Amino acid sequence: MAAKKSKKDNKATDNTIAVNRQASHEYTIDETFEAGLVLEGWEVKSLRDGRIQLKESYVEIRRGEAWLSGAHVSALLSASTHVNPDAVRKKKLLLHRRELNKLIGSVERKGYTLIPLSMYWIKGRAKLKIGLAKGKKLHDKRAASKDKDWQRDRARIMKHG
Questions:
Q1: What is the pLDDT, as a whole number, of residue 34?
Q2: What pLDDT score does 25 carry?
Q3: Is the Cβ–Cβ distance between 60 and 67 less than 8 Å?
Q4: Does residue 1 lie within any of the structural domains?
Q5: Total number of domains in the chain
Q6: Position 36 in a domain
Q7: Which of 66, 71, 116, 141 could staple 93 via S-S, CB 3.0–4.6 A?
Q8: What's the CATH number where 35 sits?
Q9: Percent of the chain that is helix, strand, coil (3-state, to 5)
Q10: SS3 152
Q11: 95 Rama sector, left if φ>0, alpha if ψ -120 to 50, beta otherwise
Q12: Residue 104 placed within a domain
């Protein structure tokens, strides 16, 4: 007889809300950071429904604080009437001071850029994975594409012998 499944087993283990797939194609990512977000109630409800797009978003640093710009969070149709949802509102990111100082130094002095890689839930709180990245040139993109194709072919050859 099969063992009973607990509630934890029934729960989906994938807590991912959104992924920026284009980021790894456009940038070489050197380091990643995890940041919390300051959200409004309607935004949390929309995130639970998966209504966010990170494709054209970026992270900017103003006055010693990190902000997520360009992320499109579409409001639910059942949103309250007294709330005016702004779909592309800038959201403050919550980072430790030493992380912020490192990011500020890298962006201002070394020419890096900050891009959001993915958004996910941890213990009921929305987290954003930020990548410290440099833009790829066209020849870098071609080389990465060739390498990816070769890895796929090699796996196929190894599987079939």
A1: 93
A2: 76
A3: yes
A4: no
A5: 1
A6: yes
A7: 66
A8: 2.40.280.10
A9: 35, 35, 35
A10: helix
A11: beta
A12: yes
DSSP symbol at 123 = T
Amino acid at 53: Q
Tens digits of pLDDT across the chain (161 residues): 455 544 444 444 578 888 888 877 788 888 899 999 998 888 888 888 888 888 888 889 999 899 998 888 888 877 666 677 777 889 899 999 999 988 888 888 887 888 999 999 999 888 999 988 887 777 777 888 888 888 898 898 888 87
Report the candidate in 92, 35, 33 with the shortest Cα–Cα distance to residue 65: 92
**Contact status, residue 95 vs residue 37, Cβ threshold 8 Å:** no
Residue closest to 117 by CA, chosen among 4, 16, 45: 16
Answer whether residue 6 is part of any domain.
no
pTM: 0.73
* pLDDT (0 to 100) of residue 1: 47
Q: Where are the alpha helices (DSSP H) in the chain?
A: 7-10, 22-26, 41-48, 97-109, 138-160
Residue 65: give the domain boundaries. Answer: 14-160
What single letter denotes the amino acid at residue 62? R
